[in-house]
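Reopening this one. Same input as before:
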Amino acid sequence: MRAEAVDATPAVAVRAIAGDERPAQLAQRLQLSLTSLPQAARLLFSFGPQGLELQAPGRRLKPLRVDFTGSGVERVGSQLLLRAARVKTRPARLLDLTAGLGADAWRLAQAGFIVTAIERQPLVHALLEDALTRAPRLAGTGSLQAVCADARSVLGDLEQSAWPEVVYLDPMFPEQGRTALPRRELQLLRELTGDDDNGVELATLARMRATRRVVVKRPLHAPPLLPSVDVCLKGRAVRFDVYLVAAGP
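Same output, byte for byte:
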C-alpha cells in the first residue's frame, strides 16, 4: 500500500532580508523558519516599507498588517464603543481580553483609557506589537500596552488593587449565520486563531474583575453571551452589550 503524500510545507515562516536582522530575530522569538523563498510557506511574515505584514503566497489575499497611523484604523461603530465603555473615573483602566488586530484598543486609548490589550496568539501579537512601534503618540491620559498571554490567566492573576474599571471583550464572530464572508485579509486572521470558543467563560470571569462595567461586542442578531444585559447599544452590523457593576471593590 502506497503511503499518502504529506505536505511538508511549513504553515508559517519569516522571509529573510539581506542586511536586516529583524526577520531572524522575529523567527527566533516565534520559533518559525527563516526563508528567502517567497513560496516556502503557506503564510509568510515579511517586513515591508509599511511594517510587518502576513502574506499568503500564491493566493489572492491582501496581506494582513496593523496600522494605527489613521487610514488603517476602522471607525465602524466607534462612537457606540466609546459610549458603551464610558465611565466617570479618569483616567480609567481598561482591559481588552481579545485584542486581535487592536483597532478597538487603539480607539479606546485615543479616548483617554489606559488600555492593556491581551492577545493569546503570538503571531497576531507580533503584528500588533510592530504597529505600536510605528504608531503616533497618544495625547492626554491614553496609553496602550499589548501583552501576549491567555486572558483567563491574566484575569486570574490580577491583584484586587489592579482590577480595571472596564473590561472589553470582542470574541471572534462565528462563520455560521453571517450574511457575508469576512474581508479577505481577515481570512488570514482566522487561519491563525480559528473561532473563539471561550467567550462565555471570559465574560463570566470579566464580571468578577471589572469594577464598573463589562462591554461585549456581538453581531447584531446574535444572542448575548450572558443573560441580564443592562445596556444594549445597537449599530447597523454589531451591538455592544454592557454589564454594569454596582460598586468597585
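So the earlier flakiness isn't reproducible anymore. For the record, Confidence is low (pLDDT under 50) at residues 1-7, 176-181.
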